[in-house]
């Protein structure tokens, strides 16, 4: 493995971690912060809801999620990003277990193991198989 | 009706993500993460046709998901959305010309089975 592949792989792992944690926590804060749908009927009430502290944290995390995923795609293949970021499903299941005390059934544990095996298989390989340039910044 | 909305969602998600991947590849590898450089990258991306097209498709996909969730529940919507994984991987190979080797196919297959089991 070349040092260039190793560099891109490390960078990809760091950004994959940001992607898979910002998404579920963003959703979580958004759901916690939003008032009941009964209080969300006019556009003004939607805008006002954005200034609720928990909703604002959720929105910021979801922006971080989308931007970090785009950054990842600037150097990694889509056929690499898709499988490795699916570790997010595992993060969601574990958050449910640890924070919300949900039980994880045998079927879900099997699914988690399959996802982790797929992520390890793809994540251990090279992130990019096409020539790319550095962004002109 | 449920299947029509589902088809719209799967089609829009696939188109959106493939366009976004194409746009980001055109932009080139982001190496500089200082605030000024990120600002310049965002300004360049706002003029990137592939990225704009991808955002539009993802907006369609988002509203289709809302509509779908009002007709069915998550345990139907999430596993079926694993279909987009298959379509996007195929398009990554033939449209984006990525070299999807046996290792990536095997990984994608494991992930798809896993996602269906986790979300059922």
Structure keywords:
heterodimer; A: 137 residues; mainly alpha; B: 120 residues; 6 helices; globular
Characterize this entry briefly.
With 137 residues, chain A is an all-alpha fold. Chain A has six helices and no strands. Chain A has one domain (3-123).
Lay out the secondary structure:
The complex is a heterodimer of chains A (137) and B (120).
Chain A: H1 3-33, H2 43-49, H3 53-75, H4 78-85, H5 87-100, H6 106-123
Chain B: H1 2-27, H2 35-45, H3 49-71, H4 74-80, H5 83-94, H6 102-119
Helix pairs in contact in B: 1-3, 1-5, 4-6, 5-6
The description of the largest β-sheet of chain A is: none
Oligomer: heterodimer
Strand content of chain A: under 5%
Uncertain parts of chain A: none
Helix proportion of chain A = over 70%
- End-to-end Cα distance of chain A, whole Å, is 28 Å
Outline type of chain B: globular
Using the CA coordinates, give the radius of gyration of chain B. Answer: 16 Å
Order of helices and strands of chain A: HHHHHH
How many separate structural domains of chain A? Answer: 1
Instruction: Please identify the structural class of chain B as seen in this structure.
Output: mainly alpha
Radius of gyration of chain A: 18 Å
- The number of helical runs of chain A is 6
Summarize the helix and strand pattern of chain B as letters.
HHHHHH
Beta-strand segment tally of chain B: 0
Our count of helices of chain B gives 6
Question: Quick check: average pLDDT of chain B?
Answer: 91
- Tally of structural domains of chain B: 1
- How much of the sequence lies in strands of chain B comes to under 5%
What fraction, in percent, of the residue positions of chain B are helical?
Answer: over 70%
Characterise the protein shown here:
The complex is a heterodimer of chains A (137) and B (120). Chain A is mainly α and 137 residues long. Chain A has one domain (3-123). Chain A has helices at 3-33, 43-49, 53-75, 78-85, 87-100, 106-123. In chain A, helix 1 (3-33) runs antiparallel to helix 3, helix 4 packs antiparallel against helix 6 and helix 5 crosses helix 6. Chain B has helices at residues 2-27, 35-45, 49-71, 74-80, 83-94, 102-119. Chain B has 120 residues and is mostly helical. Chain B is 81% helix and 0% strand. Chain B has one domain (2-119). Chain B is globular, with a radius of gyration of 16 Å. The chains are: A mainly alpha (137), B mainly alpha (120). The A-B interface holds A 70-71, 73-75, 77-83, 86, 89-90, 93, 107-108, 110-119, 121-122, 125, 129-130, 132-137 and B 17-18, 20-21, 24-25, 27-32, 37, 40-41, 44-45, 51, 85, 88-89, 92-93, 96-101, 103-104, 106-111, 113-120.
């Amino acid at each position: 493995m070349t040092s260039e592949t190793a560099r891109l792989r490390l960078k990809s792992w760091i950004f994959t971690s940001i992607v898979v944690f910002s998404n579920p926590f963003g959703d979580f804060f958004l759901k916690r912060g939003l008032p009941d749908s009964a209080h969300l009927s006019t556009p003004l009430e939607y805008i006002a809801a954005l200034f609720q502290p928990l909703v604002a944290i959720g929105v910021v995390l979801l922006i971080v999620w989308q931007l970090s995923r785009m950054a990842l795609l600037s150097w990694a293949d889509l056929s690499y990003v898709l499988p490795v970021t699916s570790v997010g499903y595992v993060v969601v299941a574990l958050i449910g277990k640890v924070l919300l005390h949900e039980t994880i059934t045998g079927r879900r544990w099997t699914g988690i193991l399959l996802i982790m095996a797929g992520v390890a298989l793809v994540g251990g390989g090279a992130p990019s198989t096409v020539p790319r340039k550095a962004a002109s910044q | 009706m449920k299947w029509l909305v589902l088809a719209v969602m799967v089609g829009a998600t696939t188109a959106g993500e493939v366009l976004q991947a194409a746009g980001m590849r055109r932009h080139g590898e982001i190496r500089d993460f200082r605030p000024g450089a990120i600002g310049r990258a965002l300004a360049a991306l706002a003029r990137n046709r592939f990225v704009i097209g991808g955002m539009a498709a993802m907006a369609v996909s988002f509203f289709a998901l809302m509509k779908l969730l009002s007709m069915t529940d998550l345990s139907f919507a999430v596993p079926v959305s694993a279909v987009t994984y298959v379509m996007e991987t195929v398009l990554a190979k033939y449209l984006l010309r990525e070299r999807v080797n046996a290792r990536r196919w095997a990984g994608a297959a494991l992930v798809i089975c896993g996602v269906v089991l986790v979300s059922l």
